[in-house]
Amino acid sequence: MPTVLVVEDETAIATLVQFNLVQAGFQVQVADNGLKAYELVQSVRPDLMILDLMLPGIGGMELCQRLRKEGVRIPIIILTAREEEIDRILGLEMGADDYVTKPFSPRELIARVKAVLRRTGEEPQQDDHYTVGDISIDGVKYEVKARGQLIDLTPREFELLLFLARNLNRALSRDHLLDKVWGYEFAGDTRIVDVHISHLRDKLEVDPKTPVYIKTVRGVGYKLVGGDGA
Ligand code: CA
User: Which structural domain, as residue segments, surrounds residue 203?
Assistant: First the structure.
């Protein structure tokens, strides 16, 4: 039974999250400040941490950075009220695994917890390397190059591209992508898939308006093709 550490100073939110996690079969520890959370990470060694950014004393961002600097690789899902912080949260600066914006539904949060645990629990495959036209994708080093240039992708963009590459030339529905890449077990809003596809095209295609690699399959979803116009 995985243990989740919930770091949140607002009692009502902490209690709601704790209740839903316990219902979903997790063991739960709660900390209402950053220092207590830091101590619990050392003593309890939780499998995952849900971390609010706005905390008294050591803030969530500082705690996350400190843990990463010390080499603590615990998966972290950030709770934030501020959309504009997402790039920093998921980027190298903080190194969180996922985020949920407030207000959030407990069901969504639980789905994220399960998805992150599933993803981080997987060992990288030995030969997870793909060349698609002039794009190369390295699933072990987590690197993507297009025309020899290293491309900066968010973790989720990378996961999406990697999944498309593992299923080269196969049409994949939005629901399937949402299930496999985001780990949503319920029908979610598939527009998030479209947004990420659009970002990938902007970063990888020579002309994002006439994509050569990431093709739309009408009425279905998307597929990655070899780049020969197929
Ligand atoms: Ca708070």
Answer: 129-229
Which CATH number does the domain housing residue 140 bear? 1.10.10.10
Most distant CA pair in the chain, distance: 57
State in Å: Cα 10 to ligand 1 middle: 5
Whole-angstrom distance, CA of residue 46 vs CA of residue 212 = 44
Ligand 1: centre distance to CA 120 (Å): 26
- Round to the nearest angstrom and report the end-to-end CA distance of the chain: 47
Angle between helices 60-69 and 34-44 (to 10 degrees): 30
pLDDT at residue 115 is higher than 80: yes
Q: How far is the CA of 33 from the centre of ligand 1 (A)?
A: 9
pTM of the model: 0.56
Q: What is the pLDDT of residue 92?
A: 61
56 Cα to the center of ligand 1, angstroms: 8
Q: Are 34 and 82 in the same domain?
A: yes
Ion ligand 1 neighbours, Cβ < 5 Å: 9-10, 52, 54
pLDDT digits (tens, 9 = 90+) for 57-73: 899 999 998 998 888 88
Q: How many whole angstroms from 54 Cα to the centroid of ligand 1?
A: 4
- Are residues 36 and 116 both part of a single domain? yes
